[in-house]
Amino acid sequence: MPNPEQALKYAIQHIAGERVEIIEGVITPVSPSWERETAIDLIRLQIGPRQRELGLRAGSGNLDLPGTENYFSPDLALVPVELATNNPGALLPDQTVLVVEVTSPSDGDTDRTVKRRRYAQFGAPLYLLVDRQERACTLFSQPGSLGYTRVEGPHPFGVPVRLPEPFGLEPDTAEF
């Protein structure tokens, strides 16, 4: 008998022409807006030089959360080059170095609560939430089974957010 979790995750990976994710068992289309893409692009531009020094790749590849009905497509994730280039499937959150989600009116609560909790449970070391509705950025770190134990922010747009080592950067958030 097929495993329902695996069957569901296999199915969404093979939906032609659609980018979707599974959030707590609900198949959800991912439809980026230009505002969201602009924020992501600004983050990429600021992190890019350091990312290359660290041997990381940036993208929005899938993250699997085994044992749950969750399969996320983050707005941006930074992962080691060897994982990005030699992995045809999804990665796990603990294989990332940084995950970034940019809210929209339709998914803001999911990014603020469900994804924050799940990324922590699955060991994503840094989770940057760019909350366009609240016009603020929050950095979550030190993941644990009950959530992130360190929270920096929310910082209003225009106040730099300090990304700790290995980045050691303060991206400008004024244009988000």
List keywords for this structure.
alpha+beta, tt1808, chain A, single chain, 28% helix, 176 residues, 30% strand
Residue share in helix: 25-40%
In CATH, the homologous superfamily goes by the name tt1808, chain A
Q: Helix count?
A: 4
The radius of gyration computed from the alpha-carbon positions, rounded to a whole number of angstroms, is: 16 Å
CATH class term: Alpha Beta
Along the chain, the helix and strand elements come as HEEHEEEEHEHEEE
Q: What does the main sheet amount to?
A: 6 strands, mixed
Architecture, CATH level 2? Alpha-Beta Complex
Mean pLDDT: 91
Number of domains: 1
Present the secondary structure layout:
Blueprint (H helix, E strand, L loop, with lengths): L3 H10 L6 E4 L2 E4 L4 H20 L2 E4 L3 E3 L4 E3 L3 E5 H5 L12 E5 L5 H14 L4 E6 L4 E9 L2 E10 L20
Parallel strand pairs: 7-8
Antiparallel strand pairs: 1-2, 3-6, 4-5, 6-7, 8-9, 9-10
